[in-house]
Amino acid sequence: MAPQKMQQLDVSQTTFIAPPQNSNFRDNNQVRSQARSPPEPFPESWNFPSLRDCVDEYLMGASSNLSSVQQSQYAIEAGRVLEAPVIETAPFEYLYQPSQNVKGLSTAPLPTNLIEKEIDKLEELYNASIIPYHEYCDRRSELEAAKAHSSVVTIPHTDYSFSRGDDSFEDTSRNIRLFVSSTFRDMGDEREVLMKKVLPRLRALCKERGVFITSVDLRWGITSEQTDEGTTIDICMNEIDRCRPYFLCLLGNRYGWSQPLNGDGEVMLGADKLLQKTHEHSSLKYPWIKRYADRSVTELEVRHAVLNDSQSQTALNSIFFLRGSMTSTNVDPRLIKLKQEIMNDGFLNTNYYARASDLEQALYESLLAQIDIDFPAEAAPTPLQKERSAHQAFQDSRSRVYIGRQYYFDTINSHLSASDGRPIVVIGASGRGKSAFVCNWTKRYQRSHPSALCIAHYIGSTAASSDLGRMLQRIMNEIKEFYHLTQEVPQDFREVVDAFPRYLNEASHRGGMVLILDALNQLDEKNNAHDLKWLPRTLPDGIKLVVSTLPGTCDKIARQRGWKTMEIQALSQSERRTLVVEYMQIYGKTLTENYLEMIISAPQCENALFLRTLLEEIRVFGQFENLESKLSHYLTARTPPQLFALSFQRLTDDFGGLRKNLLKDVLSLLWVSRKGLTENELQEILSLPSAIWSPLFIAMSESIVSKSGYLTFFHDYMRQATKAMYLSSKRDVDQAREKLIAYFSTVADDSRKLEEVPYQLENCGKFSELSMFITTLSHFRELYKGESKFDLYRYWRLASEKNLSPSKRLFQSLPLNGASPSSPHPAKDLSIVASFLEDIGSYSDAETCAVAALNMAVSSKNKRLAANKRVKVGYIYRLAGKYAKAQPYYKEALKYMENDPEQDQRKLASAINSLAILSRLQGNYEKAEPLYEKALSIRRSLFGRVHEDVAESLNSLGCLNQDMGRYSISENYLLEAIEQRESLCGVGHPDVAMSLLNLGGLYLDWSKYSSAEVPYTRALTIYKSVYGESHPYVAKSLHSLAGLAQEMGEFDKAESLYRDTLKMRTTLLGADHPDLALTFNDYAVLLSRQEKLPEAIKVYEIARDIRKKVLGVRHPDYAQSLKNIASLYQDMKQYDRALPLFKEGLAITEQVFGPRHQDVATSLSNLAGLLQLQGKFGEASGHYERSLDILISLLGKDHADVALTLNDMAVLRYRQSKFSEAENLYLRALATYEKVFGETHHNVGDAAINVGLFYLSQQDMVNARKYFGKGKTVYLAVFGPTHEKMKRINTLEPRFA
Question: Which of 29, 68, 294, 365 could cross-link 267 (Cys pair, CB 3.0–4.6 Å)?
Answer without folding.
Answer: 294
